[in-house]
Design a protein that fits this description.
single chain, alpha/beta, 2-enoyl-CoA Hydratase, Chain A, domain 1, 3 domains, 8-stranded mixed β-sheet, 6-stranded parallel β-sheet, 23 helices, 26 strands, 21% strand, disordered N terminus, disordered C terminus, protease, S49_SppA_C, Pept_S49_SppA
Length: 724
Amino acid sequence: MLWHWEGDSKRRGVRWTLSCQLTLTKMLKLLLPTPHLIPSLHHCNTLSSSSSLHHCNTLSSSSSLQFQCRFSLSLLSHPHPLTLIPFRSNTRRGGLSLHAFDSSSDSKSDEAETETEKEKEKEKGGLNDQSVRIGDEDYPSGEFEFEPITGWRSFIVKLKMLFAFPWERVRKGSVLTMKLRGQISDQLGSRFSPGLSLPQICENFLKAAYDPRISGIYLHIDNLECGWGKVEEIRRHIFDFRKSGKFVVAYVPTCQEQEYYLACACEEIYAPPSAYFSLFGLTVQASFLRGILDNIGIEPQVERIGKYKSAGDQLARRTMSEQNCEMLTALLDNVYTNWLDKVSSAKGRRIEDIENFINEGVYQVDKLKEEGLISNIIYDDEVIAMLKDRLGVKSDKDLPMVDYRKYSRVRKWTVGISGGKELIAIIRASGSISRVEGRLSVSRSGIVAEKFIEKIRNVKESKKFKAAVIRIDSPGGDALASDLMWREIRLLAASKPVIASMSDVAASGGYYMAMGAEAIVAESLTLTGSIGVVTGKFNLEKLYEKIGFNKEVISRGRYAELLVADQRPFRPDEAELFAKSAQHAYKQFRDKAALSRSMSVEKMEEVAQGRVWTGKDAASRGLVDAIGGLSRAIAIAKLKANIPQDKQVTLVEISRPSSSLPEILLELGAFLIGADRALKELLQGLTLSDGVQARMDGIMFRTLGDYPFANPILSMIKDYLSSL
């Protein structure tokens, strides 16, 4: 069989062709695979950047292949100076085409078979949007395939459970109860953290699917405070769990669009008669404080680069700009369209029917039951009685149940999910970006550049890691810190594959970090882009006059008072210099984005300008490589590291929570008083945050995520404190 590849790589300025004569010598399965995530492999990337290629390693250890290869390389243009820091592989966005020729079969039948396989893959991946083809390269979908534990492996698992730690013991036939409500963090939490983090939630679904002691999941969904990216990730894990054949039912005492969207992934939905349902549609809000600031004598002098860069508008404007309105309308339309599409698909209804039903104003659970949008109207104890009847538990006996917090302490090894020898590092970056940690900063309250860079360097220096996945959930922050982290990520990508995985938001400085990776994976509703900068200061002259405060400055140098003289507005020459510095920062951001995404500066300018995109729109514009969650990012990392997709890997969390006494006391105190979120935000606001900011606007978007930075009062306080 003859294989022929051809394509180009704009980053390195080369044109390449590769032809291989392939002979299959044997195909032998050595061992039964241990249950794990088995992504669907669409494309085998076995290219080499060398000018001659003598052999090629395949992506399957179960076959032995012989290759006869011809490789030619021709320069198209002079390389960009910044490409002195190359990626391991420079073909991910090149024009890649794959042609197979087999003299023993008709080429037309091969093409028909290929098209049929593509259609099957499309239907198979349509449930969770993980197999979407983006750009010119097909990445593995990372789709979960359940393989039951049988034979001798089942015996080994039972033996492990027999000798498990006391806190890992679960009664046979138990129902796992999980409560999804409030804030869901992308960072790993300690045992004293309130609720569960996203990694723990997803791991519980995976363990429960293989755990023979778990018969099903009883899911409580109530008042979520997270973005659509995390909801999509959890929803995908619910569908994956259902592949095990076990049941999952949802109980929703209060429900809006986000909660119902998640509940639709379950087999059955129950609600009490007094449930609060408010399915009225989605809204976006933007608040403006300029009128208040004028009344108290504060004049914000904000410099924004990018016509869609709305960060600072809530301070500098009284109304929404035309460009901001256009951007927010597009985001809202994308979320609403996706909601209608997924809900109608889950309930077997037409999109028009669901939309008409929503437009009637849904608040009565009776009406939802009549329309078949919930299974029944019963109380929590009645749901438990129903589950007892389903599992054959006698009425005078208690239903065996295990709490989600206790179950999170069960190791994957105990239920038969063991990692492989190959290690992939998971580096999590959540929160606002700052350069250094302030004296009062709370651990894990944001992304501190100096700490993040230390983790990146540790992974780069370690030979045990074959690849790294950077999980980003950040609206941005300090532009300098973002650039320093981008540099380190790019250096890491020169030594081993680095994949960026976006959660709820990876915008502005968050996107700055991601574009240093070899490939970017985002959820369809991730908020990303926002390639722009904003900077400014407050003129407090009128406020000082009102309160009788006076401030005098003695300086040397024409522009010495540029950032410290808050008792007066900018002079014309100062305003010009201030604008030039912001424009310079924007050009650096834009040019590096163009380089990282293999685009021309002109093309990048069209999608930059500070505009926020959903992950799906960003993918269609070349800002993102693939749509999916963390599992797909891991599958792509395996592909780039030449690890077979059916081979297990061990994921190593680099950002594990500290077990120090101060951290434990802090987490315990937050758990007791319920002030974790407010405390972290307040202390974060006291952290030094001078300089140009690459930050996404704090949109008050209920269904896109109730982030702390969306509070306009806190934003004003933070900006004011940073200007003092």
